[in-house]
């Protein structure tokens, strides 16, 4: 039998964690309990974070939004600021898992699972989210791209957790989006995904482009060289093909049950075509 | 009691609906007992190996582990399987695939079973495995079942008609194709499960999720060494079956466990992973086809070779092959055919019955060939099919005489007049940017029942209860298709009673009568016929009894009405309670046997194939149309619209009819586009529902179902079985559409986004 | 540990291992076998329950997580013999075949209709997209939810 603890605030959490050093934190449980069931991990103590109110809050403060690590995907889906200002993240949670998974799963959990296929990750990479990591001794701010360094690998220190995400709201006029290829339309793990962040200049050319791909490498990938190709140019078929070629040479996909490496590589390129105006 | 009699032909809501939707209907999975033990297995670590020793001592040391059994604890033959009894309840001297159970564990919890399994040590002497059926046929291939004269060949059959393959030379146009189709997993929501216990009389009782309670009883008797009358099996509503529970799944293990549980009830409920590993699949198929026609478009010659991978054991592989041979030439007339087939043992997971029973594979291949040939000839594919389709009195290419209702021409004509067909060119042209659209069609058939050798018998029992209601003793399990609720409709129509006048007993070898399996599109056809007779018998008796009560001698004067018999001339009503009280117990029960008619024409195949069920007499027919859209950027295929024109005889209940058509089609769309049960060197790769992709609610369209009603006068109320026909055609209809959209044939299923994307890129045949 | 929660309107106090799965607590300890299990890992939706009105997967919840919450299982929908409109629509529209996914489907439908009382068919399909069904092809389930929405109006 495992011990299950429910801290109701951060202080209780630290105390419980200190008393149970090997304990695992449970956010929504949609990954953790699957792993426990298949014996990929074993835990004597589970500290369930769902009763810590402050971790579930979403606040908009001027130009930035802070999202508690325990905010559920459904909360993000229902949040008006996320919907109107962080479209890429909103689109990603809309196709993440399924309705009950979205009711249970949390953004902090999705980040900590650190799967290259995690649906919230490419949007967070293009939004250049910062993570506030908290521990009993204080907190630090880490950019998302530095937080994950491999499949399931994060820089979390012992007794450290994600407390919240901080995202600068894109300037008005910035367009963001998320495009996913999965094996079906729900309950699907992405075979390849792409998040985009495009700021256009007055003449319609690209002032700033950020692109992040999921499921085509050990972590979500961004390529400054490819983003630079778009700089100052207009979104036209030839340009996207040029970018696609560059991307196909850079991604590092694997072959697994869901898809072959080459298919993923080419998807990384062809998903760029979704940027063409309708 | 609602006062109106139910009528055949109406959309009577299913009697099982309320209990199921309220969560009160008990499935086998829902039985728990006080003081119950859980049972589970230790699987083989090898695909092919001799067992040298099994050491269970480590497991027995774990507190809460009650017992660990091995083959030595099995007193009977330790073999199950019909018609070939070759599968061990617990592996004895060897293992033949990685799901073979080596030991059976009983413990206080499921967690302990996993622990105990890990603590059991088995010494193996590995044998060379064989995973490819073609290689398994080679003379020097490793042999799975050494006692078999034919080694790894389970069954082989050939149909040779006219000049056979030689006639291809006389054809003006010939096409050739080779197709590989993967295993398909049933993926019913309720995995294999049951409970078993020894009752106070020493009778072994089982409640199991099974399509075959009566057959299971005989199998268990042999395998476990018990008299059949010491075994009682109940089959509550199943949480899905589709053929995967056509025979023994956990019943042998459960029975064995209950014999060694010191009187405690035992429950077994496979995890999804165990289910995927150990349950049977649709046979993977390798098919080589050549098809030719004359200058005028009349089909002239077919040559094909069909190889089915049976996996480690026979299961129903023989009958599946026989049905594949029978359906291999589809719904067409042609005089010259050479059809040969092989069902072969390998060290892969077991294949067995699955809705369609061999027909989905061969029709996937044939119906693509038909499209290819029509294209080559330059004829419209629908016209081409109409030109060659059988009518009553014709013989199929496989030689089977169409002597019963034959509605394929009517189905094709209905499709021809449908807007989805008429408007297809415009719809294709309207494809948005980066999308390609195409429309594909396919036609096919499905035989009903067991064929000419194994008698297809149903025994219906109906009882007038003292409260004036009736009890129907269903003899065929209901795996979800609604055959037992349909019994209410049949009996209600004949007995003039409302639906709630019936109590529906689910199959119970102790109370109902053996009526065969829930399979082969036969449940309502065979049991419905039997029930119809039982109803007429009891109705006659009731009316006769009323006559004896002084209501005259004219039965025409009497109307069996809800809860009463009315004497029409006088307007007097006599309550059924009153009549029931006047009848003796045996008088209130009627029993009727129905034996399905069989095709009795001259031999086309050798006796072994005939014994496996060739040929059938009654067939359902259908043609399907799929409108698909391909995303050029990703290769993803979306089925936008779907039309099915089905000849299932007269429609007994439009709602249940649609249920079968829609459900079969969606399972078939899954087979066409996503479902790929991957096995690598005998090891299952698609271990769960996250890696084996079945369609969800967003992946499939609404389906238009047009019943094309013929009258099948051997069927109850003119109906024919439609449980399987729906799944036979989505694969070829979609494949034909994909080929139209891409200009290429994908020869390996499923038509995954990755494969479609590859042919879009390649510009050449895969 | 002692777990206290409202189950279908009634206060329950159950002693349970805290790490027992919620689905096992409901089915084995409390005998509410209407909640089904089809995969054990959140892929099929058969084990769906309402937690404070929100659909969640009881195979991915610990018993301890029920504590203090208002839990509705499929057994809590009907009012005695009278089916909930969603249940009645499932029966009338032929949405139930083998029925093993049906309780989870009904729970998903309730969650959907609470959020969106007048859904389009595509929205219904989205709302049910966490629940696998192997029998129906989904069409009649969508029909049923559509009919239930009409029947209930804004009453949910």
Task: Report on the architecture of this protein.
The complex is a heterotrimer of chains A (about 280), B (about 775) and C (about 160). With about 280 residues, chain A is an alpha+beta fold. Chain A has helices at about 10-20, 30-35, 75-80, 80-85, 85-95, 100-105, 105-115, 120-125, 145, 225-230, 235-250, 260-270; strands at about 5, 25, 45-50, 60, 65-70, 130-135, 140-145, 150, 155, 160-170, 175-180, 190-200, 205-215. In chain A, helix 10 (about 225-230) packs antiparallel against helix 11 and helix 11 (about 235-250) packs antiparallel against helix 12. The longest helix of chain A is centred in the C-terminal third of the chain and has 12 residues, at about 235-250. Chain A starts with a strand and ends in an 8-residue tail after the last helix. Chain B has about 775 residues and is α+β, with helices and mostly antiparallel strands. The longest helix of chain B has 29 residues, at about 525-550. In chain B, about 25% of the residues lie in helices and about 25% in strands. In chain B, the strands form nine sheets. Chain B has a seven-stranded mixed sheet, sandwiched between helices. Chain B has a five-stranded mixed sheet with strand order 9-19-18-17-10. Chain C has about 160 residues and is α+β, with helices and mostly antiparallel strands. The longest helix of chain C has 14 residues, at about 100-115. Chain C is globular. Chain C has five helices and five strands. In chain C, helix 2 crosses helix 5. In chain C, a hairpin with a 2-residue loop joins strand 3 (about 50) and strand 4. Chain C is about 35% helix and about 15% strand. A five-stranded mixed sheet of chain C has the order 2-1-5-3-4, with helices on one face. Chains in contact: A-B, A-C, B-C. At the B-C interface, helix 1 and helix 18 of B face helix 2, helix 3, helix 4 and helix 5 of C.
């Amino acid at each position: 039998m495992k011990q299950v603890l429910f801290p109701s605030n951060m202080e209780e959490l630290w105390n419980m964690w200190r008393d149970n050093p090997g304990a695992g934190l449970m956010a929504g449980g949609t990954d953790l309990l699957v792993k426990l069931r298949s014996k990929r991990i074993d835990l004597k103590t589970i500290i369930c974070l769902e009763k810590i109110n402050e971790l579930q809050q979403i606040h908009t403060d001027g130009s930035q939004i802070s999202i508690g690590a325990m905010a559920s995907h459904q909360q993000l889906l229902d949040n008006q600021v996320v919907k109107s200002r962080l479209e890429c993240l909103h689109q990603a949670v809309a196709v993440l898992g399924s309705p009950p998974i979205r009711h249970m799963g949390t953004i902090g959990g999705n980040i900590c699972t650190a799967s290259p296929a995690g649906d919230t990750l490419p949007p967070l990479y293009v939004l250049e989210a910062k993570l506030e990591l908290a521990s009993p001794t204080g907190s630090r701010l880490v950019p998302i791209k530095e937080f994950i360094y491999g499949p399931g690998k994060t820089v979390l220190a012992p007794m450290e957790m994600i407390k919240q995400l901080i995202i600068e709201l894109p300037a008005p006029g910035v367009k963001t989006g998320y495009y996913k290829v999965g094996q079906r339309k729900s309950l699907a793990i992405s075979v390849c995904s792409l998040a985009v962040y495009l700021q256009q200049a007055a003449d319609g050319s690209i002032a700033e482009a950020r692109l992040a791909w999921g499921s085509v490498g050990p972590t979500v990938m961004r390529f400054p060289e490819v983003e630079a190709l778009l700089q100052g140019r207009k979104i036209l078929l030839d340009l996207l093909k040029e970018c696609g070629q560059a991307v196909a040479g850079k991604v590092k996909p694997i072959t697994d049950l869901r898809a072959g490496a080459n298919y993923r590589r080419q998807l990384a390129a062809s998903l760029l075509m979704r940027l063409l105006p309708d | 009691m609602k006062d109106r009699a139910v009528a055949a032909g109406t959309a009577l809501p299913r009697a099982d609906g309320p209990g199921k939707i309220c969560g009160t209907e008990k499935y086998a999975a829902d039985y728990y007992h006080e003081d119950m033990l859980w049972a589970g297995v230790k699987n083989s670590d090898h695909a092919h190996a001799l067992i040298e020793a099994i050491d269970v001592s480590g497991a027995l040391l774990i507190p809460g582990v009650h017992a660990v059994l091995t083959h030595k604890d099995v007193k009977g033959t330790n073999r199950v399987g019909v018609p070939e009894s070759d599968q061990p309840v617990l592996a004895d001297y060897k293992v033949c695939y990685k799901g073979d159970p080596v030991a059976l564990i009983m413990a206080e919890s499921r967690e302990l079973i996993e622990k105990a399994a890990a603590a059991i040590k088995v010494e193996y002497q590995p044998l060379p495995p064989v995973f490819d059926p073609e290689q398994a046929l080679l003379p020097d291939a490793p042999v799975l079942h050494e006692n078999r004269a034919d080694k790894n060949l389970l069954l082989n059959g050939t149909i040779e008609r006219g000049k056979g393959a030689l006639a291809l030379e006389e054809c003006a146009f010939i096409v050739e194709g080779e197709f590989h189709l993967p295993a398909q997993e049933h993926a019913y929501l309720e995995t294999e499960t049951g409970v078993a216990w020894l009752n106070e009389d020493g009778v072994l009782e089982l409640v199991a999720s099974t399509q075959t309670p009566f057959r299971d009883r005989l199998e268990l008797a042999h395998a476990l060494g018990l008299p059949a009358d010491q075994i009682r099996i109940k089959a509550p509503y199943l949480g899905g079956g589709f053929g995967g529970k056509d025979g023994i799944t956990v019943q042998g293990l459960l029975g064995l466990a209950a014999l060694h549980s010191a009187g405690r009830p035992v429950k077994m409920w496979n995890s999804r992973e165990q289910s995927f590993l150990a349950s049977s699949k649709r046979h993977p198929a390798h098919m080589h086809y050549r098809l030719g026609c004359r200058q005028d478009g009349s089909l002239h010659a077919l040559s094909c070779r069909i190889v089915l991978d049976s996996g480690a054991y026979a299961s129903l592989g023989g009958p599946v092959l026989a049905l594949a041979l029978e359906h291999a030439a589809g719904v067409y007339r042609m005089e010259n055919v050479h059809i040969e087939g092989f069902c072969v043992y390998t060290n892969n997971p077991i294949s067995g019955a699955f809705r369609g029973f061999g027909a989905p594979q061969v029709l996937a291949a044939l119906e693509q060939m038909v499209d290819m040939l029509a294209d080559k000839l330059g004829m419209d594919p629908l016209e081409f099919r109409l030109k060659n389709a059988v009518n009553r009195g014709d013989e199929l290419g496989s030689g089977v005489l169409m002597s019963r209702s034959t509605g394929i021409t009517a189905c094709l004509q209905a499709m021809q007049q449908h807007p989805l067909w008429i408007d297809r060119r415009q719809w294709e042209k309207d494809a948005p940017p980066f999308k390609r659209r195409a429309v594909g069609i396919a036609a096919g058939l499905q035989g009903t029942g067991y064929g000419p050798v194994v008698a297809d018998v149903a025994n219906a029992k109906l009882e007038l209860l003292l409260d004036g209601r009736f009890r129907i003793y269903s003899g065929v399990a209901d795996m979800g298709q609604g055959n037992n609720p349909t019994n209410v409709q049949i009996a209600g129509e004949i007995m003039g009673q409302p639906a709630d006048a019936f109590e529906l007993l689910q199959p119970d070898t102790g109370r109902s009568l053996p009526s065969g399996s829930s399979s082969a599109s036969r449940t309502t056809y065979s049991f419905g016929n039997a029930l119809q007779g039982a109803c007429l018998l009891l109705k006659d008796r009731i009316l006769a009894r009323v006559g004896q009560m002084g209501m005259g001698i004219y039965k025409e004067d009497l109307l069996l009405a809800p809860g009463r018999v009315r004497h029409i001339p006088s307007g007097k009503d006599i309550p059924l309670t009153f009549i029931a009280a006047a009848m003796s117990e045996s008088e209130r029960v009627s029993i009727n046997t129905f034996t399905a008619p069989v095709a009795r024409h001259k031999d086309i195949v050798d006796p072994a194939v005939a014994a496996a069920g060739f040929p059938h007499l009654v067939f359902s027919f259908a043609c399907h149309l799929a409108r698909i859209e391909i995303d050029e950027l990703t290769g993803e295929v979306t089925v936008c619209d779907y039309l099915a024109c089905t000849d299932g005889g007269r429609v007994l209940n439009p709602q249940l009819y649609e249920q079968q058509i829609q459900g079969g089609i969606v399972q078939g769309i899954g087979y066409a586009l996503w479902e790929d049960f991957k096995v690598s060197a005998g090891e299952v790769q698609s271990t769960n529902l996250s890696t084996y992709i079945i369609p969800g609610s967003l992946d499939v369209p609404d389906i238009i179902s047009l019943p094309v009603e013929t009258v099948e006068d051997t069927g109850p109320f003119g109906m024919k079985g439609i449980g399987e026909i729906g799944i036979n055609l989505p694969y070829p209809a979609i494949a034909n559409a994909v080929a139209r959209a891409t200009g290429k044939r994908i020869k390996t299923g499923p038509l995954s986004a990755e494969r479609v994307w590859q042919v879009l890129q390649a510009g050449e045949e895969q | 540990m002692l777990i206290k929660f409202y189950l279908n309107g009634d206060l329950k106090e159950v002693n349970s291992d805290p790490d027992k799965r919620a689905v096992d607590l409901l089915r084995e300890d409390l005998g509410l076998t209407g909640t089904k299990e089809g995969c054990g890992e959140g892929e099929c939706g058969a084990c769906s329950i309402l937690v404070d009105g929100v659909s969640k997967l009881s195979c991915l919840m610990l018993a301890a997580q029920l504590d203090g919450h208002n839990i509705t299982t499929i057994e809590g929908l009907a009012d005695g013999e009278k089916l909930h409109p969603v249940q009645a629509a499932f029966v009338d529209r032929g949405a139930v075949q083998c029925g093993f996914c049906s309780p989870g489907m009904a729970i998903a439908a309730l969650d959907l209709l609470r959020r969106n009382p007048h859904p389009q068919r595509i929205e219904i399909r989205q709302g049910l997209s966490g629940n696998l069904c192997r029998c129906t092809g989904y069409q009649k389930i969508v029909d049923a939810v559509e009919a239930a929405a009409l029947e209930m109006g804004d009453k949910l």
